[in-house]
Amino acid sequence: MPLARPTTATVAVLTFVLYWRDFIAPLLYLRSERLYTLPVGLRALQQVARTDWPLLLAGAVVLTAPIVAVFLLAQRAFWSEDRSGGLGGR
C-alpha cells in the first residue's frame, strides 16, 4: 500500500481539479444564478464588466486558490518519507 499512496493522491487532486473547474455541467443543469459555481459566475461577471480587469483577475485568483491549497496539502503524499532515490539508504 505505501506505493499506491502517491498515485491515490494524484488521482484525488486531479479529480478535485476536474470537478472544481467544471464549466459545462453546471451551466447546463443549474437554472438559478444563486447556485452557479465559480467558473460560471466568473463568466457571468465577465459579460457584465468586460474591462474591469482587477475585478476579473481577483475572481480568477479566488477560483485558483483552492486548487493550489489542495495541491500543497497533498504534497506530503507525493513525496515519500524515504528520499533515498531507491538505493536502499546508501
Task: Give a written overview of the molecule.
It contains 4 helices and no strands. With about 90 residues, it is mostly helical. The model has no long low-confidence stretch (mean pLDDT about 85).
Essential attributes:
mainly alpha; 90 residues
Report mean pLDDT, rounded to a whole number.
Answer: 84
Sketch the major β-sheet. none
Number of domains: 1
Total count of helical runs of at least 4 residues? 4
How many individual β-strands? 0
The helix-and-strand class reads mainly alpha
H-E string: HHHH
Distance between the termini: 23 Å
Beta-strand content bin: under 5%
Helix content: 55-70%
Radius of gyration: 19 Å
Low-confidence stretches: none
What would a concise description of this structure say?
By secondary structure, the protein is an all-alpha fold. 67% of the residues lie in helices and 0% in strands.
Describe the secondary-structure layout.
Blueprint: H1 4-20, H2 24-29, H3 38-48, H4 53-78
Helix pairs in contact: 1-4, 3-4
